Amino acid sequence: MQPRDLSTHSVYRAGRGIEEVARELDVDPDELVKLSSNENPLGPSPAAVEAIQQHASHSHTYPKSSHTDLIDAIAREWDVSPSQVWLANGGDGALDYLARAFLEPDDRVLVPQPGFAYYPMSARYHHGTVGTYQLDKADDFEQTATTVLESYDGERIVYVTSPHNPTGRELPRAELLALADQTDDSTLILIDEAYAEFSETDSAVDLVDQRDDIAVLRTFSKAYGLAGVRLGYLLAPPTWADAYERVTTPFAASELACRAGLAALEDDAHLDNTIELVRWAREYMHDRLQPPTWPSGGNFVLTAVDDAQAVAHASKEHGVIVRDCTSFGLSDCIRISCGTREATKRAVDVINDIV
After folding, report:
1. What is the share, in percent, of the chain residues with pLDDT greater than 70?
2. Which residues are modified to N6-(pyridoxal phosphate)lysine (predicted)?
3. Beta bridge pairs of residue 109
4. How would DSSP label each residue in 103-145?
5. What DSSP string runs through 293-336?
6. Residue 264 confidence (pLDDT)
7. Is 9 a residue whose pLDDT tops 80?
């Protein structure tokens, strides 16, 4: 007995945890600075931590009330109907629900290259096929409707990340509308806004009520500091929102995740402090790094180097963990997450010394 043929499926390679690297180097984890996974430099919302602690003793119950309450709170946050909120176990869980709802066997999707590996992974899990559109370094990774449309051939879903990971580049609203207008009526444009809180560009969420061919993905992992909790959601057009109940798993987010999300949504101070710090760190890296960088709307900066693997290895030896972007097809780039002021300054000094 064997599983189905998975030879065409890729493996998601997450950045290594700080404890793993500490064991490898035989050092105390507190001696290391991890700026490789775009995590919140301030940690989780204190209100979310308190909520998790308060409700831990209720984790033997299913999250019926908290699940409903969180969906209602997200709906109020974005001024949409609760039926338009597809709550999930992380943003990747929402991608799976979208693929279940939209893809027939052999339907095609279009994903960015470089880009988030889970877009094509999710599509293939659900028997879709994958095409790519290229964001070129020669064009400074600029995102435009034309960039996507040059590779478009009637795909069922087109995935757009804005701000884009790992480059940080954004798709302007005018370009998004041009893309939606020039694709088929049966094509959905999925806008992944995992990093949108750090951008100064308005969210595309308001378009969800105006059109039935645009949906928006959001997450609690980045700005709210809940990456370890695994909590995300999709905002869907009202015309097909009821599909969620037909494709979701029972209780798509845990009791503790829902309680943490509810508390985090109310913790404006933590969110504001996070955004302020990230924008400072981003500009500090743009101004102080010796190797070239690209504009970024996210909580990270992409930096050009001669040999990403060598620079990332040397940086790690100096106690600063950055992301070697070879796995994104960018063997001459590293990605540096925004850290605390101390961590960001240390990373800039280390990288400058290495290059």
Report:
1. 98
2. 222
3. 130, 157
4. PPTT-EEEEEES--THHHHHHHHTT-EEEEEE--GGGTT---H
5. B---SSSEEEEE-S-HHHHHHHHHHTTEEEEEGGGGT-TTEEEE
6. 98
7. no
Tell me if 102 sits within 8 A of 157, measured CB to CB.
Answer: yes
pLDDT of residue 45: 95
The closest alpha carbon to 209, from 239, 172, 244, belongs to 239
Domain boundaries along the sequence of the chain: 18-40+268-354, 47-266
pLDDT digits (tens, 9 = 90+) for 18-50: 777 768 777 777 778 999 999 999 999 999 999
According to CATH, what is the number of the domain 47-266? 3.40.640.10
Angle at 120 between CA 299 and CA 303, to 5 degrees: 30
Q: Where are the beta strands (DSSP E) in the chain?
A: 33-35, 85-88, 108-113, 129-134, 157-161, 188-192, 214-219, 232-235, 300-304, 320-324, 333-337
Residue holding tokens 């402090």?
273
Asked if the 18-40+268-354 domain carries CATH number 3.90.1150.10, the reply is yes
Token digits for 44?
A: 């989780």
pLDDT at residue 17 is higher than 80: no
CA dihedral 315, 276, 75, 241 (to 10 degrees): -40
CA 241 to chain centre: 22
- Average pLDDT of 284-302? 98
Cα(174)–Cα(42) distance, integer angstroms: 34
Q: How many CA atoms lie within 13 A of 56 on its CB side?
A: 6
- pTM flag (> 0.90): yes
